[in-house]
Design goal:
The protein is an alpha/beta fold. Helices cover about 40% and strands about 20% of the residues. Strand 3, helix 7 and strand 4 (about 145-150) form a beta-alpha-beta unit. One of its GO terms (molecular function) is peptide chain release factor N(5)-glutamine methyltransferase activity.
Length: about 280
């Protein structure tokens, strides 16, 4: 690796060397990630690092940065290292108990907001609570229930509700999908596991090695969770109620067939920013 021009122990030198290591580990945007890690370790804004590249890095911050950098070089997701992730207009705590919210999933929120304002909202496989909390933040008259198989995930979602001022309008439960719930929901959201089992090992290491397999593995054809959820929607939805389900790439036709077999109307779909069909919108008659 090439020498770094700034003095040893300075912000610039730390960023230079970290960027080199991250690039060698095939991390995208290595300089940006180095800056984010160092600014977090030092407790300063990232722009301050750019303004003062020759400023010294305090010893304690250097130790924190080194530990964080080693985790990132092992392809641990940045969200887990920092402990938080932005989604919609919210800042959410994240942990290895849940998937890290993706910008692609904001398509589910966008699709949900196209319909009438719901009174009762259900989020199946809630994870961080990102979908439910985003919808509640836009519909101040709604109340929501989030369910996750993992008690740790349900507890994390509850903390996110508190942190975002929404705890009085939602509750989070640990359970298997909606088995313990009665119906009457106006809107149901879900980002279920939809990766085919055989494809998980080939995902980027940040996902395959660090995010929870139960939240990724959709079975041999990626549709196991949809079969359970879609079959239960007629019972769970109020008359005229809608469901918005996240899709894996190319899964729209297969999930639509499941919905039609369950007697649900397929209202349409909504693409993410990459143009991928990401949200399927269903309705009970």
């Amino acid at each position: 690796m090439s020498d770094c021009p700034d003095p040893k122990g300075s912000v610039g030198a730390f960023l230079c060397r970290a960027g080199q290591h991250l690039r060698a580990a095939a991390i995208e945007n290595p300089r940006m990630e180095a800056r984010l890690l160092l600014s977090t370790a030092m407790g300063v804004d990232g722009s301050a690092l750019l303004r003062e590249p020759r400023a010294p890095v305090p010893e304690q911050a250097a130790h924190r940065f080194a530990a964080m950098l080693q985790r990132r070089l092992a392809h641990e997701p940045m969200g887990f290292i920092l402990g938080h992730q932005g989604f919609w207009t919210l800042e959410l705590e994240v942990s290895p108990a849940t998937l890290i919210p993706r910008a692609d999933s904001e398509a589910i929120v966008e699709a949900a907001l196209q319909g009438p304002a719901p009174g009762r909202v259900l989020d199946l496989g809630t994870g961080t609570g990102c979908l439910l909390l985003a919808v509640l933040s836009e519909h101040p008259g709604a109340f929501g229930v989030g369910v996750d198989l993992s008690p740790d995930a349900a507890a994390l979602a509850a903390r996110n509700a508190v942190a975002n001022g929404l705890a009085d309008r939602c509750t989070f439960l640990a359970g298997s999908w909606a088995a313990a719930l009665a119906g009457g929901f106006d809107l149901i959201l879900s980002n279920p596991p939809y990766i085919e089992t055989a494809d998980i090992a080939g995902l980027m290491p940040e996902v395959a090695l660090h995010e929870p397999a139960r939240a990724l593995d959709g079975g041999a054809d990626g549709l196991d969770a949809y079969r359970v959820i879609v079959a239960d929607l007629p019972r769970l939805l109020s008359p005229g109620g809608r469901a918005v389900l996240e899709l894996g790439q190319g899964q729209g036709p297969a999930v639509s067939r499941l919905a039609e077999q369950a007697g649900l109307a397929v209202l349409g779909s909504h693409a993410d920013l990459g143009g991928v069909e990401r949200a399927l919108i269903l309705q009970r008659g």
